[in-house]
Amino acid sequence: MVSKDDIFRALKTIDLPPESIGGLHITDFGQVQFTIEVDPEQGPSMEPLRQKAEEVVNKLEGVTRSMAILTAQRKAPDITASAVSDPHGMSKNPKLNNLRIRNIIAVASGKGGVGKSTVAVSLARALQRAGKTVGLLDADIYGPSVPLMSGVEVSKPKVEDEKLVPLEKDGLKIMSIGFLTEGEQALIWRGPMVQTALYQMLRDVAWGAEAKPLDVLVIDMPPGTGDAQLTLAQKVPVTGAVIVSTPQDISLIDARKAVEMFRKTNVPVLGLIENMSTHICSNCGHEEHIFGHGGAQKEAAKLQIPFLGEIPLQLDIRQKADAGEPIILDVFDQISKVVLKSDEYKE
User: Fold this and answer.
1) Model pTM score
2) Of the candidates 18, 36, 79, which has an alpha carbon nearest to the alpha carbon of residue 192?
3) Secondary structure (DSSP) of 45-97
4) Which helix (H) or strand (E) holds 315?
5) Cα 73 from chain centroid (whole Å)
6) Cβ(302)–Cβ(277) under 8 Å?
7) Quick count: other Cβ atoms within 10 Å of Cβ 15?
8) Which residues contact 44 (CB under 8 A, 6 or more apart)?
9) pLDDT tops 60 at residue 185
């Protein structure tokens, strides 16, 4: 098995000193991941070095695949126009216009804890029921939950023709950073690393074939309106975004920000979902609106976007999500129909 010393020696041949290498990790399957600390001012010009680093490590005996990610310590805030538009030097990476995917649907939220991952997994399954070939990308780098919710048997993805092969569960193609890290390992990554990881999970994964592209890729986005959202909007032809919120005001404020962010980056917003909309007691049948009710529908009307439906707060949804079992509700089939009938959807 390749050792860390072997990797450091290989990188030294291309003038990469050990102190510039961080986060070096070697899996049992010979996959190598590491970061390269570079001068932030030189970041955009260092892509050839990153590629060379992957090449020399790939040549080592026992290495099946290497992934190098550029990162940098920012010395001070730069308020120039170029820094605002491209703070992490992502302009060095071309737009991914040739992905073998017909449609990309981002499932997003302004804040965490609103059930976005549950919606993403369930929407992917609903699109499958509609007869589409579907992939599911877990882009929540810091808190990947798709491996658990999808019920896939977690293993390290294989590499074929220089592409990662997504894992599959009942025909659903699945990729997550959770498949590439060890167990409970925490990812302490800066913004540039998150951006690059998302970019590579789109570019370097065999989602579809040239003769048979994937019909739909559903992306479970991290919460907020940060680096991952900007990377997706700027580098990938996104068909549209589905926004998830609970009925309460604090969640709707953040959902409004998510809608505005996608509008500013010219990503169509397909609609708003109200999760945890109502709770019916399993003992007495009493209906209670724990987080309020109807707030997302009113907000959708204000924002002039479609309201896609209500998802109840009920025990079996949580139980099935934790068990990795499909959550079959009429609302998810209704949402999939809206997606498939949207003007942006490509057959």
Assistant:
1) 0.71
2) 36
3) G-HHHHHHHHHHHHTSTT-SEEEEEEE----S---SHHHHH-TT-GGGSPP-T
4) helix 315-323
5) 24
6) no
7) 9
8) 86, 89, 91, 92
9) no
Phi, psi of 190 (to 5 degrees): -85, 170
The DSSP line for 117-175 is HHHHHHHHHHHHHTT--EEEEE--SSS--HHHHHT----PPPEETTEEPPEEETTEEEE
> Percentage of the chain with pLDDT > 70?
86
Length of the chain as a residue count: 347
pLDDT of residue 292: 64
Cβ atoms of 320 and 273 closer than 8 Å: no
Q: Quick one: pLDDT band at residue 347, thresholds 50, 70, 90?
A: confident
Query: Would you call 139 exposed, middle or buried from its count of C-beta atoms within 10 A (0-12, 13-18, 19+)?
Result: buried
How many percent of the chain have pLDDT more than 90?
27
Rg of the Cα atoms in the chain? 21
Q: Which residue has the higher pLDDT, 70 or 346?
A: 346
How high is the pLDDT of residue 43?
58
Residue 197 Cα distances to 32, 43, 67, 202, angstroms: 14, 16, 9, 9
3-state SS, residue 245 = strand
- Residue 166, token pair as written in the block: 């997504």
> Mapping DSSP to helix (H, G, I), strand (E, B) and coil, where does residue 106 land?
strand
Tokens of 238: 């996104």
Please, which residues have CB within 8 angstroms of residue 146's CB and are 6 or more apart in sequence?
117, 120, 121, 136, 138, 140, 174, 176, 178, 220
Q: Which of 167, 97, 148, 123 is nearest to 328 (CA)?
A: 123
